[in-house]
């Protein structure tokens, strides 16, 4: 059983949302503050929530695999990356109103991650030994300050502190193409701290319409020193920047219709965005312009609906759709990181006791998406194609209380 990060999250390798209520609506939260963890999507939400504490846990079950075909080195076959499952993801948030205009808060949550564990190594025919896989976990801490700058208009800021933990195994054939082959694979877990900032705005327009927006900077990370031979810049793996906007409409008191759109700049981080072709242009692994996973930027769309049945029950549903970050030409290394699901469906509900304790649950299913390789395995590795696929299931439970 894994813990502390996502195995392959729904928006590429970012989590689809933070907070169990948001997750019940496909992650919609930019203009829909529902609990203390809403500040992880939009720091300005802190002014809307009163004094409250929320904590939850998610069980995340990815199903990842790969197929190699037409390879001259004898690597053909079907491979399962499910040697580690399921993953347990905790989160907690607290918000306090200091005055009518000022609120503070803090959220601790998983930012995203990727994991594959191939007991049967897809690279064995290239000379790899043991199981193959990578494990990246990201946990973020977001202290938050929000201010009602004008009536109905709030702004917020969250300095972000991230802790990333990474390990890789069974990648020996690629180490020969590195500036530092001794620090490429099978070095155990290595951790690094990353820092950045998230800014947010939330505005009410009448009693029925709310708009929101956020910007999260790239989180600059210290190097993974034990894997200095793997990633560009001698082991640097920053967290990509992202930004987006949201809309929430309440046509009647009991019904809320909401949507988010978000852009994730995966290509802006060399370790994520640089293609494998850099290797054959004279840039070895770990060089400043060396190969990464070849991901492209994606846009994510989410829509959610919430309906309050009575004083005890609220129900939710949502749908999310994202671009696929992995081009067909980049599937070989992405056997290790097949973050290719594009759709996810969610449902959730909250029960509130007479004393105000809220119990919220949700379920999510991301149907399998497959990317067939096209020119994906370079001739020096025998040519042919690598196909990758991913499906996901998750469920979560949280408790919350407004004080």
Write the layout of secondary structure elements.
Layout: E1 2-3, H1 20-23, E2 52-69, E3 77-80, E4 87-97, E5 102-118, E6 132-150, E7 153-169, H2 172-175, E8 190-205, E9 209-216, E10 220-221, H3 232-235, E11 242-252, E12 255-264, H4 270-273, E13 298-308, E14 313-322, E15 343-352, E16 357-371, E17 385-402
Parallel strand pairs: 1-4
Antiparallel strand pairs: 2-3, 2-4, 2-17, 4-5, 5-6, 6-7, 7-8, 8-9, 8-10, 9-11, 11-12, 12-13, 13-14, 14-15, 15-16, 16-17
Pfam families: Toluene_X (PF03349)
Membrane topology: Multi-pass membrane protein
Organism: Sphingomonas taxi
Q: Can you describe what's shown?
A:
This protein has about 400 residues and is mainly β. It has four helices and 17 strands. It has one domain (about 1-400): Porin (Beta Barrel), CATH 2.40.160. Strands 2-4-5-6-7-8-9-11-12-13-14-15-16-17 form a 14-stranded antiparallel barrel. It is found in: Cell outer membrane. Pfam families: Toluene_X. InterPro entries: OMPP1/FadL/TodX.
Could you write a compact summary of the structure shown?
The protein has 403 residues and is mainly β. Helices cover 4% and strands 49% of the residues.
Fraction of helical residues = under 10%
**What's the SSE pattern?**
EHEEEEEEHEEEHEEHEEEEE
Q: Strands across the major sheet, in which order?
A: 2-4-5-6-7-8-9-11-12-13-14-15-16-17
The count of domains is 1
Total count of strands: 17
* The CATH top-level class label: Mainly Beta
Give unreliable regions as ranges. Answer: none
CATH fold node name: Porin
- End-to-end CA span: 35 Å
Question: What would CATH call the architecture?
Answer: Beta Barrel
CATH homologous superfamily heading = Outer membrane protein transport protein (OMPP1/FadL/TodX)
| Beta-strand percent range | over 45%
| Count of helical stretches | 4
The description of the largest β-sheet is: 14 strands, antiparallel, barrel
What is the 3D shape? elongated
The average pLDDT value, as a whole number, equals 96
**Rg, nearest Å:** 21 Å
Keywords: Cell outer membrane, Membrane, Signal, Transmembrane, Transmembrane beta strand
Organism: Sphingomonas taxi
Protein name: Long-chain fatty acid transporter
Main location: membrane
């Amino acid at each position: 059983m894994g813990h502390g990060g996502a195995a392959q999250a729904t928006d590429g390798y970012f989590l689809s949302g933070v907070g169990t209520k948001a997750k019940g609506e496909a992650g919609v939260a930019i203009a829909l503050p529902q609990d203390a963890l809403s500040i992880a999507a939009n720091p300005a939400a802190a002014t809307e929530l009163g004094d409250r504490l929320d904590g939850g846990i998610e069980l995340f079950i990815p199903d990842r695999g790969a197929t190699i075909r037409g390879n001259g080195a004898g690597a053909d076959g079907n491979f399962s990356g499910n040697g580690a499952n399921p993953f347990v993801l905790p989160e907690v948030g607290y918000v306090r109103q200091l005055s009518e205009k000022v609120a503070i808060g803090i959220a601790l949550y998983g930012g995203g991650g990727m994991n594959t564990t191939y007991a049967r190594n897809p690279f064995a025919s290239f000379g790899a030994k043991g199981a193959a896989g990578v494990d990246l976990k990201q946990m973020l801490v977001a202290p938050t300050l929000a201010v009602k700058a004008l009536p109905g208009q709030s702004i917020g800021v969250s300095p972000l502190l991230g802790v990333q933990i990474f390990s890789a195994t069974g990648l020996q054939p690629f180490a020969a193409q590195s500036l530092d082959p001794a620090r490429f694979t099978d070095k155990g877990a290595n951790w690094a701290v990353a820092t950045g900032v998230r800014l947010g705005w939330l505005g009410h327009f009448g009693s029925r319409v709310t708009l929101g927006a956020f910007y999260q900077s790239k989180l600059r990370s210290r190097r993974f020193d034990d894997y200095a031979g793997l990633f560009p810049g001698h082991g640097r793996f920053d967290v990509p920047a992202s930004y987006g906007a949201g809309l929430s409409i309440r046509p009647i008191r009991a019904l809320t219709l909401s949507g988010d759109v978000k852009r994730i700049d995966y290509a802006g981080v060399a370790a994520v965005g640089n293609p494998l072709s850099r290797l054959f242009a004279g840039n070895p692994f770990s060089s400043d312009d060396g190969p990464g996973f070849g991901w492209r930027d994606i846009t994510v769309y989410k829509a959610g609906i919430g309906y309050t049945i009575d004083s005890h029950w609220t129900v939710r549903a949502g749908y999310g759709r994202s671009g696929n970050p992995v081009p067909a030409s980049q599937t070989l290394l992405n056997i290790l990181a097949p973050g290719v699901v594009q759709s996810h469906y969610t449902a959730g509900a909250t029960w509130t006791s007479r004393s105000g304790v809220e119990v919220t649950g949700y379920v999510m299913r991301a149907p399998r998406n497959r990317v067939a390789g096209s020119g994906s395995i370079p001739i020096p590795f025998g040519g042919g194609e690598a196909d990758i696929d991913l499906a996901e299931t998750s469920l979560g439970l949280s408790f919350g209380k407004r004080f």
